[in-house]
Amino acid sequence: MDHLKPRVSLLFLTDLTMATRAKLSLAIFLFFLLALISNLALGKLKETEVEEDPELVTCKHQCQQQRQYTESDKRTCLQQCDSMKQEREKQVEEETREKEEEHQEQHEEEEDENPYVFEEDKDFSTRVETEGGSIRVLKKFTEKSKLLQGIENFRLAILEARAHTFVSPRHFDSEVVLFNIKGRAVLGLVRESETEKITLEPGDMIHIPAGTPLYIVNRDENEKLLLAMLHIPVSTPGKFEEFFGPGGRDPESVLSAFSWNVLQAALQTPKGKLERLFNQQNEGSIFKISRERVRALAPTKKSSWWPFGGESKAQFNIFSKRPTFSNGYGRLTEVGPDDEKSWLQRLNLMLTFTNITQRSMSTIHYNSHATKIALVMDGRGHLQISCPHMSSRSDSKHDKSSPSYHRISADLKPGMVFVVPPGHPFVTIASNKENLLIICFEVNVRDNKKFTFAGKDNIVSSLDNVAKELAFNYPSEMVNGVFERKESLFFPFELPSEERGRRAVA
């Protein structure tokens, strides 16, 4: 059946005999070149226009020019041209898709150059801003990097209220864990037909169940109030909304969405009176109030819902709690599910506070299950995380029996947020001039364990000697000499005596 194969160009039918190739006329070859040049010169056609590929035209033309072919041979030849064209198009599509995927990977790598660190001025959006204060919300964690899908449903917001301000009543379609970073406040929570008033001091933490109406008062005359609010949405994953019940035009009440007939029937109030009621407020959702109003909103000395009398207090204060670990180089305080806080157990959360002394560092360590969402409260320092997901493309092309690791680093300052996924070793270092204070919401803490690479009881020292020698290909006593030290968790940040005087590499 060789005589059925078309005598075409080398570009298409490679199985033609040398004798047949020699018979190709110069005219056909010139026609092929002219078709290509014409296609380039025309450029992009309009979307409604259709142009047949010049190479396909040439192939079909040569099929028709073969005098020795019968009509059946020519049809077979034309079918082969179409088939080869489809194969070429498929090959081009695959090559294009591969290039697009490669470009996308490169783009993601550029975007995720530092996927775990969030800048205050870049990664927060302002949801509310008035003369009295603001609410800023951190972007979804997965918008920063797909590596953070494990905490996709969590959102972090920062509320700032100036002295003697009132934060209007609202409720959220999310569970809220509120932490008082700075300032003094009164929190009003509507519970069982009355308002429970809770005083907040720096370090106080409280859980606000989804849907609970609340208001906030900055009761300090001079200092601003700063609250961190971890939202766990219960409606739309990764998204939360606030709903104002009492309100007017600004903030707008949720009741404004209902018809006047419905409101009149529900509230048994004439339309005119309702219109006057819902048109009064236009101060915004955070506004300044008088000293007398602040005093009127303060908790009474005896509250029926507070069984021991006096002012109702937050559920606990992490600054006054005894540290889990402390030495001269830093201290760690933890409050978690084991501290008989039922809502912490239900939400699978832990709150930790780390205070690293100036010129000191934490050990290199990682969590087995928990993801750390850390907010720098005060001080400056440095962060390093070891990440297997960010290894360079050049490294990945080499044949390796293990992954390569990328160092993610950032200089820390107040207002910054960083995330450390489980299994990722990391270290935090305080600057030479001030302590580094970090508050952490740790999620998925159930069964979590902390493993260290330096200090007392680190995982290398805990290995048996034979395993050490096999892992490092080095005598175990030499390995022990490197990893063993007396301190735990926090150390001075200084080079060994042999290296002092040289500049430390960050």
TrEMBL record:
A single Gene Ontology CC term? endoplasmic reticulum
Sequence segments annotated as region (Disordered): 84-119
List all Basic and acidic residues biased stretches.
84-106
Record-annotated Cupin type-1 domain positions? 116-275, 316-480
Q: Which InterPro entries match?
A: Cupin_1, RmlC-like_jellyroll, RmlC_Cupin_sf, Seed_Storage-Functional
Q: Where is the composition biased (Acidic residues)?
A: 107-119
Q: Which SUPFAM superfamilies match?
A: RmlC-like cupins
Q: State the SMART domains in the record.
A: Cupin_1
Pfam families named among the record's database cross-references: Cupin_1
Official protein name in the record? Cupin type-1 domain-containing protein
